[in-house]
């Protein structure tokens, strides 16, 4: 590796960092005495321009299999480039929601932190080295802590940021501890090198310890049970644009990282020559150790159950969306866990704990789900932010009679919540259909069938609490019929998201083909 290759590989991240610095210079220097609305528009447009430049840089630098040593890789398996492009698009949409916000006067700093956090997301999406992964995660996480606390006049914002920070520090410790075990077992920080070392020597008990610690660290990032305790308070206390960013961009980056770790460390290639020894070892170790795939299986099932059941009793839409996010993390983890295939094991968890392989169909299904969920969630938080500014609350009753107060806003809410529930023909239905079909396609048997049945049952439960919000918006009488005004840009963004959700639901192949196209573009 040389520095030219490294700079070429990090051009998208560099574009975001330059845009962040430019936003600070313009906002704090040239527009220091300008009206707040002017500063907001200028900072937002510069941020969106930075995201656009980063996307352009991706297409310029994304040669097939292009890498910077063993640290960064672009386009491997057709999902890294798609995930990075998704991160940039979602970041731009989040910034556009800032135009109608009034939670801070430090708009330049807010946009700069968003852009720097997004650069951390891009970094971990392409990372192939433990040190680079940790640096990217910290760059992303530190920005998220700051964004959560950005509403200085809100006590909930400060409390949420403190909890988020404390839980984040603990998760980082777990992650580093797991990384240290992988390094000790292999003598390298490269994911490929770790895979080769495990494949040549066979798994040891420390492999399971390291994997449990890594799952704990990454489980925090995706808000999976039992590492979810920060999510409800953060979603409730953070400013709406910050909550949208956390619920979308952070999830896309973290799940992409989890896929990368699984496909590298537990890919069949390094283990191909030692299938017999691995199977024999696992057979001896079975009953006294937790198998690798079983860990993700347990976390996925617990997230689906707890997330959906806890959402039933929420009285605030923000916390409802938080527990919904936990449930969706369970669905996605279910798809990731089924990258495991049978290798001579026929026990209950046999299909889960063998070797992870780059199954293009299931990887694309997971990424399809993550991207569409992120898009829908940004729109949902956009609607919640508008209603919250108009009523002063995010409680369910704040949405009473929304269809009379703003029919377009109510229509957007209807489309987005039904999509999150998985109702056809919206894109949420196809996201779940593709994911569940991939689960059954990769692993046949009673266990995957039971998991998919559980996921479908929990999706039916989720429909109930989404309908509780829609019932208030369309059926129950409003207490106040004063029209809710929406900034034209915000309304345009929300309508565009709703139209995209409908269009991608009617023509899901558009997004599927776009994800697959990165096999050739990158």
Task: Give your account of this protein's structure.
The structure is a single chain. The chain is mostly helical and 522 residues long. It has one domain. It is 74% helix and 2% strand. It has helices at 3-9, 11-30, 36-61, 80-96, 107-126, 130-148, 155-186, 191-201, 205-221, 230-237, 240-265, 268-271, 275-285, 292-311, 317-337, 360-391, 402-405, 407-421, 427-442, 446-474, 488-506, 509-521, and strands at residues 67-68, 72-73, 340-341, 355-356. The strands form 2 sheets. The protein has a two-stranded antiparallel ribbon. Strand 1 (67-68) and strand 2 (72-73) form a beta hairpin. Helix 4 (80-96) runs antiparallel to helix 5 and helix 15 packs antiparallel against helix 16 (360-391). The longest helix is centred in the first third of the chain and has 32 residues, at 155-186. The radius of gyration is 22 Å and the shape is globular.
Helicity, in percent? over 70%
Q: What fraction of the residues are assigned to beta strands by DSSP?
A: under 5%
Q: Count of DSSP helices?
A: 22
* Strand runs, count: 4
Overall 3D shape:
globular
What strand order characterises the main sheet?
Answer: 1-2
Mean pLDDT: 83
Biggest sheet overview: 2 strands, antiparallel
The SSE order reads: HHHEEHHHHHHHHHHHHEEHHHHHHH
Estimate nothing, just give the exact number of structural domains. 1
Fill in the keyword field for this structure.
522 residues, mainly alpha, two-stranded antiparallel ribbon, two-stranded antiparallel sheet, globular
